[in-house]
Amino acid sequence: MANVGKFDPNYKAQQNAKSQSSPEGSCVTADKLGELIDVAKFNKMMSKTSDTVNNFLDSYIQQQNDIKNNTANKNLELELARYRQTALNERRIMMEKQQKMITELNQLYGLYESQLQSAKNTADLYRRLQNKKIK
Asked: Are the beta carbons of 36 and 28 closer than 8 angstroms?
């Protein structure tokens, strides 16, 4: 009786088989396989396949590194843009402080000039009064 677990319905010899095949009859041993396969050709094919896979992996790794470098460059550009914006904000703040300080200094200068003029006027008035008193 045939073992159902090893039955392959797509294998023609098994579809018409009346009895189980012998274990030695249709099996390929390592020695027979060596005779059936051209080892030099197989090695050459494997070498080409290995080269193709290595080339693919190298290009994939390079592509991933390029993506990473591009991301790093974008991050650097973003960081530089932030620094630039911070510098512009600080410059604006400093210019506003300078304008405020110049305005205050102009006010103080105006007050100083008016006080100086008042002192001159007072001295002039005092001299006139002294001259009137003497006459």
From this structure: yes
What is the Cα gyration radius of the chain? 51
The pTM of this model reads 0.43
Please report where in the chains the tokens 């008035």 appear, as a residue.
125
Alpha helices by DSSP H, the chain: 12-15, 30-36, 39-134
Instruction: Report the amino acid identity of residue 63.
Output: Q
Helices (H) then strands (E): counts for the chain: 3, 0
Instruction: Return all residues near 9 (Cβ < 8 A) that are at least 6 apart.
Output: 15
> 19 near 2, Cβ under 8 Å?
yes
Measured from the Cβ of residue 16, the count of other Cβ atoms closer than 10 Å reads 6
Q: Rounded to whole angstroms, how far apart are CA atoms 72 and 65?
A: 10
- Reply yes or no on whether the pLDDT at 111 is more than 50: yes
For residue 45, the enclosing domain spans 4-134
pLDDT given for residue 85 in this prediction: 95
The span from the CA of 15 to the CA of 122, in Å, is: 135
Q: Which of 30, 40, 75 is nearest to 67 (CA)?
A: 75
Mean pLDDT of 113-128: 94
